[in-house]
Design goal:
The complex is a heterodimer. Chain A is of the alpha/beta class. Helix content of chain A is 33%, strand content 28%. Chain A has helices spanning 40-47, 70-76, 92-97, 112-124, 140-153, 170-187, 198-204, 222-225, 228-235, and strands spanning 2-8, 17-23, 29-33, 55-60, 63-64, 77-80, 158-162, 190-194, 207-212, 215-221, 237-245, 248-256. In chain A, strand 4 and strand 5 (63-64) form a beta hairpin. Chain A is globular, with a radius of gyration of 19 Å. In chain B, 77% of the residues lie in helices and 0% in strands. The chains are: A alpha/beta, B mainly alpha. The A-B interface holds A 10, 48-50, 69-75, 78-79, 81, 83-89, 95, 98-99, 101-102, 106-107, 136, 147, 150-151, 154 and B 89, 145, 213, 215-216, 219-220, 222-234, 276-277, 339-340.
Chain lengths: 258, 340
């Protein structure tokens, strides 16, 4: 996925993203991190076509996403969002089956192939044993898995996740990230996610894009680019780099800087 | 599998009950009324089918058109309600609340007062066009990086209040006709002509057909704006389409029903309680329930309450609907969010 000189703001005065370019590796997990209001969720909304850039273009396999029609785009790209306000009076299986919509036309009913894909998605997200449970009776962590299962049903090339671990407790945070990692490894789906937690981003991603004030500060392989100075510059937080064990660093926040 | 079977049996039972109830009330509303012509049940029942009883034929001539119009317009209002609720994702939306009813009624009123020559096929279209313009205005005010449901309802309520004043002023300005105009405002069906029935049936048919075609889209939209959009739907365009069809359906109904409130709220509420929120059942069952509600309200107002004068349909639906609306509102407050 290539992002070329993208600029965006809801109106002319408030520019949220200024001339942003990046290349996101195919088949990798890329995390976008940065402080609140740095434009990372806005960037995600541009990549998922929820918003349209004012200038510049975004390409998937050399194809401009603005030119892809709704369903064609939804076959390539699936997204999991933080807040979902929709109908929760559905069973897990019913809900997840809507992930097949981009592959269907109008009243097209589900074929046995579709059923197999739905069953596999439920299996991959550990939901097979609760497929009859209603969404309204589920916890936030379980529901997050339902949204991921639906996204998998779309059989996308790229999966976007907007802060998939926010509002979840420690167990569900790790569980969701492990599922994401497994999906990436087993199915070769490119994962692009916005994360709040620098340490989670480091341990679960191949590449990291660091943003501040609507622009990219730096990007590259996770372990190469993040260091104490970067965190101080971007977040205004002093921290210590701890080597927990080989290959895994942990940034321990000490205090805010001003 | 047996669970699926139970669901089908329940659906069949619910549909049959509603259709049967509608047929019974339709029969009663043709049979009973303030007229010197009276026949007994047997004569009536046989007369309808063989068409040889002169009194029965007269009753049919006089009352059947009104019965048919009540059912058609009831179905229109109910489905308009479902579509508006789907577009605004708020189960409290109703054409009478968000200003669609008053906008289309105002157009009918102006057509009736100043352009009496226009054909039957054109007046609902003009009303729908005007209703759509007004609703576009509402959406323009409510628009802020997309259509948010609660804002549409708030702005709609304000616009509704403004339009009602214009309507009342026009009614009161019409001199001797004022009281008849006010009566029509709350829904006095009158005696429609055959042509009017055909015109209404065509518009109702087209509107309902469009709604049925959009059932899968309504279900996807119900998953939430972002999810629907992620599944490849142009959410804003879909909402606009649903609203446009709702306005058309509503403009067909307001011509005869005036501002009959809450039908679009009550019918979907009943349908949801009985067969759930899948639009596959919600749209057809609401249509039948809406027909039944308006038919019953008209029958009660005409034959039971306030004899020998008739009470407009709108008053009865507003009394029942208003109470239900307040209960639903209270419930949505205590739930902390608008859910079922």
């Amino acid at each position: 996925m290539d992002i070329n000189h993208v600029k965006f703001g809801y109106d002319k005065k408030n520019i949220l993203i200024t001339d942003l370019s990046a290349n996101i590796g195919k088949g990798k997990i890329t995390s976008i991190i940065g402080p609140n209001g740095c434009g990372k969720s806005t960037l995600l909304s541009l990549l998922t076509k929820l918003n349209k850039p004012q200038c510049g273009n975004i390409l998937i396999d050399g194809q401009e996403i603005g030119l892809l029609k709704g369903k064609a785009f939804a076959k390539k790209v699936a997204s999991v969002f933080q807040i979902n306000d929709g109908n929760r009076d559905l069973s897990v299986e019913e809900f997840v089956s809507y992930g097949r919509v981009p592959h269907k036309s109008g009243f097209g009913s589900l074929s046995s192939d579709d059923d197999a894909i739905i069953a596999q998605s439920l299996e991959d997200t550990g939901l097979a044993n609760m497929k009859d449970k209603r969404l309204c009776n589920m916890s936030g962590g379980e529901r997050q898995r339902v949204y991921i299962a639906m996204a998998l049903c779309q059989q996308p090339e790229i999966l976007f996740l907007d802060e998939p671990t926010s509002y979840l407790d420690m167990y569900y945070q790790l569980e969701v990230l492990e599922i994401v990692k497994k999906i990436n490894r087993d199915k070769g789906i490119t994962v692009i996610m916005v994360l709040h937690d620098v340490n989670q981003a480091l341990s679960y991603s191949d590449d990291i894009i660091v943003m501040k004030d609507g622009a990219i500060v730096t990007s590259g392989a996770a372990n190469d680019i993040v260091n104490e100075k970067l965190i101080a510059d971007v977040y205004g937080v002093e921290c210590r780099r701890l080597n927990v064990y080989e290959g895994l660093d942990y940034f321990l926040p000490i205090k805010t800087l001003n | 599998m047996s669970k699926r079977k139970a669901k089908i049996i329940k659906a069949v039972a619910v549909y049959s009950a509603f259709i049967l109830a509608t047929l019974i009330i339709a029969f009663l509303s043709v049979w009973i009324g303030n007229s010197s012509a009276k026949v007994n049940f047997n004569q009536m029942f046989v007369g309808i089918f063989d068409g040889r009883n002169i009194v029965v034929n007269r009753l049919l001539d006089v009352r059947a058109p009104r019965t048919v119009i009540a059912m058609l317009t009831g179905a229109c209002l109910a489905v308009a309600g479902v579509l508006l609720q789907s577009a605004t994702r708020n189960e409290l939306a109703d054409a009478s609340i968000v200003g669609v009813s008053s906008a289309t009624y105002l157009a009918h009123l102006i057509c009736g007062m100043f352009m009496s020559g226009i054909g039957l096929l054109f007046s609902p279209l003009i009303a729908a066009a005007f209703g759509l313009i007004v609703f576009c205005g509402i959406m323009f005010i409510a628009w802020n990086h997309g259509l948010k449901s609660n804002r549409i309802i708030l702005v709609g309520a304000a616009v509704n209040a403004l339009l009602m004043i214009v309507i009342l002023t026009l009614c009161l300005m019409s001199g001797i006709n004022a009281s008849a105009k006010l009566m029509a405002l709350t829904g006095s069906l009158g005696i429609p002509t055959g042509q009017e029935i055909i015109a209404t049936a065509i518009f109702t048919g087209v509107g309902l057909l469009c709604s049925i075609i959009l059932i899968p889209k309504c279900n996807v939209l119900a998953l939430g704006d972002k999810i629907a959009s992620g599944l490849g739907m142009n959410v804003t365009r879909m909402k606009f389409t649903l609203i446009a069809i709702a306005v058309l359906l509503c403009s067909v109904a307001t011509k005869y029903l005036g501002i009959t409130a809450f039908v679009g709220l009550l019918a979907p509420l009943i349908a949801r309680k009985l067969l759930g929120s899948n639009h596959k059942h919600l749209i057809p069952l609401s249509a039948i329930a809406g027909a039944l509600i308006v038919l019953t309200a008209d029958f009660l107002g005409r034959c039971v309450i306030n004899q020998p004068f008739s009470m407009p349909v709108g008053i009865i639906t507003t009394i029942i609907g208003g109470v239900v609306f307040l209960i639903m509102l209270k419930r949505s407050f205590s739930n902390g969010h608008q859910s079922r």
